[in-house]
Request: fold
Amino acid sequence: MGIKMKKKLVITVTLIFAIAVFLFVYSGFGKRVDVSIHSYAVSEDGTTITVQTSLAGSMGYIRDITYKKDGDKIYASFYGAFGGLNSKIGAKNNFEIEVDASCKEIYFDRGKEGYKLVLRKEEATNEWIKK
Reply:
């Protein structure tokens, strides 16, 4: 094998490795918009809701949640696990959402469809109800 051939081989292998690493890491920053609540629990003091999530699709896992409060509403987005289509690297399905007395609704990100209401606090009973 000549020097030019070895150089091309090293460049090709390096490029393939770099692409594989990029795809591995990039997959963990993609939003999952097919997340639903399997079950949930409210802490005794009412300041935290723990949601157990599931996916509508048959492939993939969730690794993280981000949420923001806007008035009396919370808007949550979820992110896929690292490693590609069906990798479990960093996967979880239980997530805590901090709420305060003014919170009345929690929405999940549905991508192009906007946000969907998933939990609502009933004013009469002060209990969280799955929608």
